[in-house]
Structure formats: C-alpha cells, structure tokens
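Let us work through a complete example step by step.
Step 1: write down the sequence.
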Amino acid sequence: MDIAMWSGPRNLSTAMMYSFGARGDCALWDEPVYAAYLQATGLEHPMRAEILAAGDCDAARIAARCQGAPPGGKTHFYQKHMTQHMIDGIDRSWIRAVVNVFLIGTVALIGPFGRGHVLRSSMPRKSPLEHHRFPPDIILCAVGWYQRYPLSYQDIVDLHTERGIKIDRSTVYRWVIKFGPEITERTEKHLRRASVDWHVDETYIRVGGKWRYL
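Step 2: predict the structure and record it as tokens.
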C-alpha cells in the first residue's frame, strides 16, 4: 500500500512517519517533492544546496515512484508530503493511485493557544460561549489569535474569510472585550513554568557559519 500523508508545518507528521518506520514492513520517504519545490521556486531555504543534491528534482520521476511498488521489497510505502510543495507545474496525477490521508484538526485543538481542549474543559456546564451565532471553537480561535499575535481586527476577519468563515470586525471586537479576560485567566493557570528540559522538533541551526539539521 502506498500511503501519502499530507500535512503542514509543525504537526504530528514526523512522529507518525517514525512510527510507521518502526514497522518492519514499511518503507519511508520524507518530503518527496521538497527538492523539486525548491528548484521550481528558487526559494533560499536552510541547507538548500544539500537538499537539491540529495533529493529528486524530476517531477515525473517522483510521481512514478510515489505510485509504484514499495521499495526494498516492503509491503507498505509511507510518504510524508507537505501540501505547500504541490505548486503549479508539479505533477499531481499520481495522487489518485495512492491512499491519501490528511492531518487536520479542530481549531480548538491546534489553534493559537495549542490548549483549546483545556479552555473548553474548564468552562462551566453552561458555557458563556454557547448560544451565540458562531460555534465556540470559532470564537476561541478569533480571540486567541488577537491576544497572542500582533493582529488587527481586520486581520482576524481576513484569516477567517480565507477559511470560509464570514465575520465582522465589530463582532471580533465584542468577542475580545467579552471573552478575552476570562480566556486569559483560564489559560494562564494551566501554563507550566519553563524548566531546564527542552525538546527540538526537526529544525535548523547555524553552526560555524553553516546550516545544520538537528
């Protein structure tokens, strides 16, 4: 089985890839289209030269391999794809020949706080977010974006419009005034203080003037 796992930055895609890799019957391919994407766009990403040298820039060859038999005589072929790599000019016909899985979630779970489940579970049974025109998840997302990032009310409106949700600036303003203080209070008491422990999730750092992959 050829599995195309579609994801965006900073989610569980890498962890899932290594989980599948722990199986003896599964081959892995991490971001097959990355090199072709960099070559087509000309973007200056960290370690660009190394990625271009190691990866395949031929879109037709990539498509054939993605829908072909799993390499190494394996039974399954797990491919971690990034949706932003599929730009115009990159062959997409092969997608119909594989099993496609999309990593998605509700805005309350993967939204601006990253702790939306804490907010929802800490609300009383008769939540002040209920009985509004918009679902609680949308309200939490709008207020969370405004409080966490340097965004204007119009920015919040534009972000929701891109996701097919139409709201007004005055509505966002009322949400921030009404729910902002309570959301801040309920969130802060669940935040943990920084400790000496830290973790790295696939990132690049510059060592000796050169980009290194951790």
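Step 3: interpret the result. Strands lie at 2-7, 26-30, 76-82, 99-102, 204-207, 210-213.
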